[in-house]
Every structure is written in structure tokens, then in C-alpha cells.
Amino acid sequence: MGIVVEDHDYVEDTIALQASDHESLLVSYLTELLFLAENNLKIEIIELKIEDFLLNMKILKASAAKIDKEIKAVTFNEMKIIKKNGIYQAKVVFDL
Amino acid sequence: MITFKDFKRISDYEWDIEKTFRHGMTVPVRVFASEDIIKGTLDDQSFEQAVNSAFLPGLKGQFCVMPDVHQGYGFPIGGVAAANYETGVISPGGIGYDINCGVRLLSSDIPYDLAAPLLEDLAVLLFQNCPSGVGKRGTAHLSDKDFQRICFEGSKWALKNGYATLTDIEFTEDNGCITGADLAAVSPRAIERGIAQAGSLGSGNHFIEVDLVEEIFDDKSARIMGLTKNHLAVQIHTGSRGFGHQICTDYVRELQPAISKYHINIPDRELVCAPIQSKEGQRYLAAMRCAANFAFCNRQLLASEVRDIFEEVFSKETSNFQLRMIYDLAHNIGKIETHNINGEKSKVCVHRKGATRAFGPGHPDVPEKYRQIGQPVLIPGSMGTASWVMTGTVTGMGKSFGSCCHGAGRMMSRTKAKKSVRGESLLRQLKEKGIYIKAGSMSGLAEEAPNAYKDIDLVVDSAVGAGLAKKVAKLRPIVVIKG
After folding, report:
1. Which residues of B touch A75 (CB under 8 A)?
2. How high is the ipTM of this complex?
3. What would be the CATH architecture of the domain defined by A3-68?
4. Of B193, B249, B443, the CB nearest to A38
């Protein structure tokens, strides 16, 4: 989203998300990031755990000066999550 | 893959993809467009998405595709579907993320010659006072109670609080307030995203545009609407901002289990839906109406701001600086309407995603002033190109559930558009054409370059050729405010 950080006054926070499947969890996760960015926050993920369809993360958040690009929503459109050589790859389409 | 051979010609501007084209379609797809537009759209997923959308259960008549069609998410943009109110489904993706994105048109008695020396000042003031861009706070600072009232009352809240006139309300679709909104169906996150944004434009293709009425095609209709050649008019294009985006996001996710629960067969998860009469369907309808009412009020608040600026800029030059409401309409919405389908009256939920309601003469939902000529249909062009004012037709009522196109229709992706032109040079080119642009972001400006869109005149010719609407006036942009 092209976020420019104003200062480095980071605050720690935790976020827990639950969904009915992996695709929905990915949408929830990205929607959460979108919300934080819309509120002029830049985040740094310091811990992220996914168990089944439950995601827990510990983040550091700081106020950001400017967001260049608005993302309206994270969509399920043409969404693909694949595992290749032990690494997950995902294709996600955003509504701009 | 869909090729031109799959289209059966009905007329120069009407083509069918028959119901037998793919197993599972519940209705055929009817495309209202010229052969050239269809051929020019085959390289994206628009028609594939139209065919997928024709799988939705309980659809009546046909799935309609407007001439400005382009690829969306699940549903194509420029798609119209009417689902049986008793046995059909409602799909958040068939309405879109920006619930009640729409357009408002205001007219004036300010001649271009009088306004010309003041246009640059006007552009600066509009840009400074109408919040635009990413995540911006709106002009209204709302308490929780005010926000709740906006969700229930829409533009009527603006009337009670001095931001609207009775005429504004009369000439807004549904009088700016759809009944059946229920905040209990809306997530706290959606409220959190929306509460600060009432009276803001946003970014993307949203704009405030000052236009010159360049050409009149129907004197009588233009006179009734109050459009005069060479006078200024104003268009406001925006929607429900983060509030609507979040409601759609919430329900696309929340309805995923409904697919198996109600044994629904859809080829794309983005088309997720629930029976209209189910608990899930009713909850989405109630939430969607909150966003629709918020969007009506949002455009009203911006119109109030624009009026103040017009007074500031033009009141020293003329006593006729007022902006009169012509019409305000939604082009991303689901509405419960009654239509004559295959010879019988049917109550349906009409999904219009990137499509404008275009009711014909005589319809009781058209304000009395316009009942003789049909509902005003507002079709904004891309930045720097013409916009069109049209009227709905009786023919369109039967062909497209009283619907028409909503714009030019994107034909180049945002990424491609940015690669083809630089924002700064576009700004210069448009200034040379006498168009003042104020934009928050140069890359955002490049994404909206005119060459990223179809030729609006050809799109409008298709709508007219198919009998969906009649031309009234053509508007030329002179000041554009972009987020």
C-alpha cells in the first residue's frame, strides 16, 4: 500500500483471527492489515502462528504519515493457495 | 473460453449466450452491446463471469450485461440479475464492495463565459474542502447516535441537520432512504471504518466534476431537468466508503457456509449467496441497506459542501449561483422491485452491479416531475471525456429490468494504465484541453487516464440502440477533483 512511516514509536498488540477454511483465514488476515493501514498504522509482525483455521499474531504498530494507495477489499476472486516445495504460495485479487 | 461464435445475434445491440451453453446455468445471458464492444471485451473474464453469474438459483428472465461491461469479482461489472423474491438468492458479490456507489447531478444557471476566469479558484477550493483520497475523514463529525440515524434515515438525516433541501430528497432514488436497514446486522469493524468517513469522496474512480452542458439532444427533457446549453453542472461520484467495503467483505466471508447449507451450485466463491428469505439473506439485506443509506447521505453531504463553495466563488459575479438537484442514483445495489417478466408480474431482487436503474415514463417510482419523460439516467465518462444524461424507457423496463449502463467501462487494468501514461503529463494534456484537475496522487491519476476506458459515446450508442435509454444531454468536464 506504499506506507510511509512517520516515526518509530511502536506499540505492541496481539490479534487473533478464526475462519472456516484457509482461504477465508487469508482474507481475514489481509483485511485486518488493510484496516490497520486505513487507520494510518504501519505494523511489524513479530510472531505469527497458524493452527488449523486459527491465526494468532503479535505485532508492533506505529503511526504512518501517508498511504498512497487505497485497497477497498480483499476478494476471494481467483484465489489460490498452493504448497510448493514446502512453501505456501497464494494468489489474491484486491478490489481497488 | 468464450468466443464470438458463442453469441447468438438478436439485433445489432442484443446478443444471447444461451442457457444451454454450460450445464448449470439457470437463465441465458443477454448482452446489450455492439459487435465491436463484444469483440473488444472477449480478452478479459467479463463474459465468463456473466455465465458464472447465470448459475445463481432462482434467477428470472435473463442475466443482463450492459455495454460498459468489464471484469469484476465473481459478477461482472455492468451485470444485472433479477432473483425471485420468494425462491431466489441474494449475492453480496452481485452488488459489489462499494455498496450504493452512485452519481448525483446538479444543474446551474451559471454560464461558462462567466465562470471561466474563476475555474482555477473553484478547483482549488473544491479540492481543499471536499475530503478526498485514501482513508480521509469526512466533512461531518458524527456521534455514534448520528451515525446510527444515517444508517436508518440516509439523506433524511441530512435534511434534518441542514445539509439538504426537500427537493434534494425528492430527486434522490428511494428519496435517499431505503427501509429495512438494521445496524444489528453490521459488524463493529464496519461501523469503525465508516463513522469517520461521512462526507468524503475516497479515491479510485470517485470524483467531483464541474461540467459544461455541451450539447442537448432532447429539448423537452433537458428543460424539465433544468439543463441549459453552455451552463455549468456538477457531478458527484462516490459511495459508502470503508463502511460498505467492510459490510461486503464480512458477508462474502459469512455466507461461505451457506453454499453447502442450502445446496447451492456456483462456480466461483466470490458469487457466494444465500436464499433471500433465509436468516442469512435477510441479515445481508438489512446490512446492505445501512450502507446504501450511508452512501446517499455521503453524496448529500458532499453536495452541501460543493454548494457552499459555489456560493463563495460565484456569488460576487451572479445572484444565480445556486446548484439545483437533478437526480441521485445508485449503481451498485440490490433492490426489491416488481417487474413484468415473461408476461407475468414478478417480485424480484434486482442486483445491479455497475448498472444504473433506468425506469421508464409512467413508473410510480419515478418522481412526478420526471414521470412523463422517464427517470434521469446519469452516465459519467472517464476523466477528461464526456458524460451523458439520459432517460429510462418503457422498452428498457421489459428488456433489462429497467437498467442501463453506469459509465464508460474500464478496458485497461490500472497497472497497464500507469505504465502507458504518467500522471504529470496527463495533467498537462488535460489542462491544455481546458480541464483543471486536482488530484491527491499522480499515480492514481494515471490509473484513471481516459485511454484506460472504453469510448463512452460508443457505449451510450449501444444503450440507445438496444432501447435501454434515450439521450438528453452531453456534458464536458472543466474541473475534476480526484482522490
Report:
1. 73-74, 97, 252, 270
2. 0.79
3. 2-Layer Sandwich (3.30)
4. B193
